[in-house]
Amino acid sequence: MADRIGNKRRYITGFDGLRAIAVIGVIIFHLWPNVMTGGWLGVPLFFVLSGYLITDILIQEFEKTGTIRFGSFYLRRVKRLYPALVVMLLATATAIAFFARPLLYNLRAILVTNLTYVYNLWATVNGDSYFEQWGSASPFTHLWSLSIEGQFYLVWPLIVWLLLKLKVPRVRVAQGLMGLALISALLMAIYYNPTNINRAYYGTDTRLFALLIGTALAFVWPSAKLNGRAKRQTRRLLNLAGFLAMAMLVFLFFTLNGEWAGTYYGVMFLASLDIAVIIGVTAHPATVFSHWLNNRLLNYIGTRSYSIYLYQLPVFVFIDIWTKHNHHLAIGLWKIVLVLILAELSYQFIEKVFKRYYGVENIFNFDSVRIYTAFVMMMAVMATSGVLTPQASGPKPTTKLEQRLKQNKKLLAAQNAKALSAQQAGKKATSQTEETSSQSASTAKGAISIAGGATSAVARKYNLTDTQYQAVKSKTVTAIGDSVLLDAGPSLQELMPSTVVDGQVGRQPNEAVTLVQQMAAKGTLAQNLLMVIGTNGAISPAQVQTVMAAAGSQRQVYWVGVAADRAWISGNNSVLLAAQKKYANLHLIDWPDAAKAHPEWLGPDKVHPNVQGSIQYTSLIAQKIAEN
């Protein structure tokens, strides 16, 4: 980065390479989250890098001029960030108005909050989860990070100027900044809520630690003081630290799930410290990282990383809509190509144009800026057709599916209490003497059985023989899953009244695994465990292994295969098929083949069973349970 601050500052080779790594990680995460689970760490990489660079620039300016020219700094930031953002927002709003009207909801608020750099604050309450993979995915979700950076750019120059003016020792400043970073990380842990991570993930206070780590590094590791002729021992130590830190970052890119509780209880903070080591090593001109990360390909991507970041999600969302979520590899590669084309256009005709523009006084003599202004005005007129629609002023209305799931959750909660009571009665019976056990078991059966005359009717409804029905009706089951389980839960409890159903919209596999462990530790897992998970994210063999270990060899575990049109679904079903061969008490229920043969069993989203489908879904589960 080479901002103009009086005398020309040293260009830090390798930083464009770090920007390239950051944006590549984010893109792969958005395209193939099952391939690069932690690719979202590209955002903390951007944060730490921005904190370091901006602080380094401000310190050097103060040292050379005795002050910080705030007007010049803000003008540089506005030219660097605002024009490309405005064009992307208007272009996306126009595309929504003409080609994707279901995305109109909340459009006004989204545009206004992004233009004023408070979108992340709005998103903590109103936005989709950054890890949400279903529903009407927003093409603006990724912009939360730009708002945090915009807020940082607004106040940080004043703070740096004051600290330097007061001549506070640099080491003391760095220590204070790291203290504030720790407080920010603590706030992330406090605000973390596994059912809604938006407050912890999008909050300025909870994400500030990455920027603060970068600023602290700049005070104790200024680029202008780094000597390219360092001693051999120093170079070796720096290179070793860089290799270890980079290896850790690559490992986290492929393994760190953004919805794990541990991520918010310190792992993201530690990852940001690891990133700071990489940045510090790369900033030193004597290290191999300064040279290895300085190559033509990485520099090309790095210099265009801002525009690439801007356009990636709009392109991905629109192509998913138009191709009906076709996740073929070729589609993914075409998405990347289109993003690169749009980013190149943005870089050449917007970013570079405004980089050459230095004053307000000659705006009307600057041909490129006048052309740009006319172009933006034309897009603004087209975008207005969407912004002024009634839908753009409010949130998306609740769908019939959402209403049904909400109603089901209430019904399930009431029945869960009865089912849990019946399960506990059955457990109590097994701990008594044989005679007492026989009486208690009879009582427990009476508590959970359906009235005698209803037996054949219920069996017929779920396409079961009387033998199958008798085998399953008194089974004790713990069912854990996502919204698909919520959808089918009432049917499961009608057929097997002693079933405790714990379903949650948007639940990720790691959440379900944690819940199984917690219930096993409390002794509340029934003799039969039903897993309905994998719709919202990738299932790993390690997660299946954890579930099976928590369940133990004496329980029967039933896992429903996943039917949906997302990239990770086939991988999930393959993992489950392989696990079924490994564990004798794991039984896979083949819902994908049934749904493929009977698409009429699925609702409009082609994921959740409709009323008829819920009956068939429950029937498949019951038939498998009856076999054991």
UniProtKB/TrEMBL annotation:
Q: Which GO terms describe its molecular function?
A: acyltransferase activity, transferring groups other than amino-acyl groups
Q: Coiled coil located at which positions? A: none
Against InterPro entries, the record matches this protein to: Acyl_transf_3_dom (IPR002656), Acyltransferase_3 (IPR050879)
Per the UniProt entry, what is one GO biological process? lipopolysaccharide biosynthetic process
For this protein, the record's Pfam families field holds: Acyl_transf_3
Its GO CC terms are: membrane
Q: What name has this protein been given in UniProt?
A: Peptidoglycan/LPS O-acetylase OafA/YrhL
